């Protein structure tokens, strides 16, 4: 009898170890299929990993991303809600809360999105995870901006910047604050924050990121009527975008140069730059960029 019990115990342990070992394999397979754009197989492998070991958070995240890529937002949320119930640690919950906040924001449920980012904030503080805390604060700011509560949005972006050590995150925060000040019509403060964003963008050594900041600063100078500085920054941003062979960024720069010459009263040059931006957006099949640029061209032509 004892021998049979011992044998059954060995079989149970063997099965458990086999299941746990297969979970990372299936999770890795899920990631590979996800990166290859084969979302159906990613979901299949991810679910096999979940069946093998339900406490492993990684395959839930993988399956959720695959569902999202396929346009199944509700399924992406549902699988993460299951992950939330199974999560074995605060570290896992932090990942899940962050992703659920993003998904509910995408869905347009701003209150639930805010709730999950607040949960992420609390868990990050419990873990003494400064990076996670900064991310949660920035995400909360983003929600408040979407709600139109600019005072709270600026408050939380500033809180995020105060504790962040990541130049990329700080650049995004200052850029977002600048955008809010522009919405409020406070162009001097917008310029101040775009300049701060540019300072931190340079620390990332990401040339495309730096180019975006240069263009943003140039456009901000345009709005405060410092056309000389605007031209210098916009041209620098355009040249960097050309060096990086980033056509979308070049189109963005051409459009802003068009606005600059429009504001200077040089309609002919403004139309030339806007036409370049429009043609580039068309070549990229960027319908949104092409539509907004065409609208500005029509205004210049009096149509």
From TrEMBL:
Record key words, sorted: Cytoplasm, Repeat, Signal, TPR repeat
Protein name: Tetratricopeptide protein
One Pfam family from the record: TPR_12
Domain of life: Bacteria
Family indicated by similarity: Belongs to the Rap family.
Localization terms from the record: Cytoplasm
TPR repeats: 57-90, 134-167, 171-204
GO terms for cellular component: cytoplasm
PROSITE patterns: PROKAR_LIPOPROTEIN, TPR
């Amino acid at each position: 009898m004892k021998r049979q019990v011992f044998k059954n115990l060995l079989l149970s342990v063997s099965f458990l170890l086999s299941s746990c070992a297969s979970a990372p394999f299936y999770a890795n397979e899920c990631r590979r299929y996800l990166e290859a754009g084969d979302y159906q197989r990613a979901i299949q492998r991810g679910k096999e990993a979940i069946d093998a070991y339900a406490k492993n958070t990684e395959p839930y995240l993988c399956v959720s991303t695959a569902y999202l890529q396929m346009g199944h937002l509700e399924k992406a949320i549902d699988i993460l809600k299951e992950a939330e119930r199974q999560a074995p640690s605060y570290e896992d919950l932090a990942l899940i809360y962050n992703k659920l906040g993003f998904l509910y924001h995408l869905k347009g449920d701003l209150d639930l999105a805010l709730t999950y980012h607040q949960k992420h904030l609390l868990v990050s503080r419990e873990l003494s995870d400064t990076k996670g805390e900064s991310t949660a604060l920035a995400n909360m700011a983003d929600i408040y901006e979407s709600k139109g509560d600019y005072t709270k949005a600026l408050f939380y972006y500033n809180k995020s910047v105060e504790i962040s050590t990541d130049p990329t995150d700080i650049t995004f925060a200052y850029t977002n604050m600048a955008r809010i000040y522009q919405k409020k019509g406070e162009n001097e403060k917008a310029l101040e924050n775009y300049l701060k964003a540019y300072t931190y963008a340079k620390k990332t050594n990401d040339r495309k990121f730096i180019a975006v900041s240069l263009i943003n600063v140039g456009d901000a100078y345009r709005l405060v009527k410092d056309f000389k500085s605007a031209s210098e920054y916009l041209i620098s941003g355009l040249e960097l975008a050309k060096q990086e062979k980033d056509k979308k960024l070049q189109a963005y720069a051409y459009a802003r140069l068009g606005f600059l010459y429009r504001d200077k009263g040089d309609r002919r040059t403004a139309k030339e730059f806007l036409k370049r931006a429009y043609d580039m957006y068309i070549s990229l099949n960027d319908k949104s960029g092409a539509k907004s640029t065409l609208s500005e061209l029509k205004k210049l032509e009096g149509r």
